[in-house]
Write a structure and sequence with these properties.
Layout (H helix, E strand, L loop, with lengths): L1 H133 L3
């Protein structure tokens, strides 16, 4: 019977070890269950954050489009301003040329007026001499 007792003792040891392993597995299952619960919570939080990020991505795309449109508008305004500035510069040059030619004409008219005045004065002086010479005062 010794062998049977030894076999029984060995089986009891194995059963004891199996019980210990079972308890360890139960503890691990409990811990795993807690971790699964935490992971589920984190997953739901990540899902919420993903939704928020998607909303922000849409807003970012909308703002990018608006910035592109505003950039195009600003570029058009800049081009328009440059065109108007070039046109104004052209007008200033044309006005300066016209003013220069008017100034020359005024100078010429002034010179002609001075000559006419001198001629008129000389004619008056001559008329006055002739009258004096003829005795007509």
């Amino acid at each position: 019977m010794e062998k049977e007792d030894q076999i029984i003792a060995m089986l009891e040891k194995i059963i004891g070890k199996l019980d210990e392993h079972g308890e360890a597995l139960d503890e691990h299952s409990s811990i795993l269950s807690k971790h699964t619960s935490i992971l589920n919570e984190h997953s739901s939080i990540l899902d919420k954050h993903t939704g928020i990020l998607n909303e922000h991505s849409k807003k970012h795309e909308e703002h990018s489009e608006q910035f592109k449109e505003h950039g195009q508008i600003l570029a058009a305004l800049r081009n328009g301003q440059e065109y108007l500035k070039a046109e104004m510069d052209g007008m200033k040059i044309a006005n300066a040329k016209e003013f220069g030619s008017l100034k020359e004409e005024i100078s010429l008219i002034s010179t002609n007026q001075d000559l006419l005045r001198e001629d008129t004065w000389a004619s008056k002086v001559d008329i006055h001499r002739i009258k004096n010479t003829m005795g007509m005062k």
